[in-house]
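Why do we care about 3D structure at all? Because function follows from shape, and shape follows, mostly, from sequence. That is the central idea of this module. The next example makes it concrete: a single protein chain, its amino acid sequence, and then its structure expressed as tokens.
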Amino acid sequence: MFGRNKNKGKPPPGEPPAKLVERAFNDLRVHVRLQEQDIAVSEDFHAQLHASMPELVPYGSNQYAAVRAVLDWDHQIPNEYMLLRIYTAYSRHEARLLDTQIRARDQAITSDNVYPEFDLPDYGDLDASETYIAVLRPGSADFEEFRFFSDWRKEVRPPVARAALSAVKQLESYQEAYRTRQNDALGSAVVVGWVPPCLAKSTAWAVEIWLVVEFDGQIGKAKVFMVDSESLVVTREYLTEVHVP
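And the structure:
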């Protein structure tokens, strides 16, 4: 499991994230099921994907030792969607582990690729310091969704969480949503976790906060707020759906 702030094996200063992202797209892996359908194989398309990427900023004082990019399939033929997976590592050790996992997945895919109609593994669920997943339609470089995942995302220190909650609760939009929510049993706002600047539209990493306003036991709605952790400015707010698996 990759950590949030490791010093051992850190790369030397002077490796900007943009350069590592550029290198990742130059070495973009394309799943064999996409290649067989002649989807997303041209260098021009890879350049378009790179141009669609938002700027990545490592969390806190971390640096990226490596960035890897994979264009994955959706287990359908023909593909309805493609998944662009961006994996980052904060240390050389983590980069080696990530590359080992990718090579192992390459081998599993090659081993199982007997007939073109057979299902194959994808490149999901690899361990990384940060994981980003974009959803695209075949032939398009426009991201329909762009999401962030990490195993440390929920580790928001109590003082930071309290400051972010305080900033949100002062908003008129929060107070209105709180007053008009379905019922009092839905509770107050809760901290969901960290959000990178590219998704929060913030300068620093942001804290994501949810206020559930409707829920029937299965589905509902929540008001989402993203708070810049340094300036405590709320940079985004919107409604999202809530589902119980």
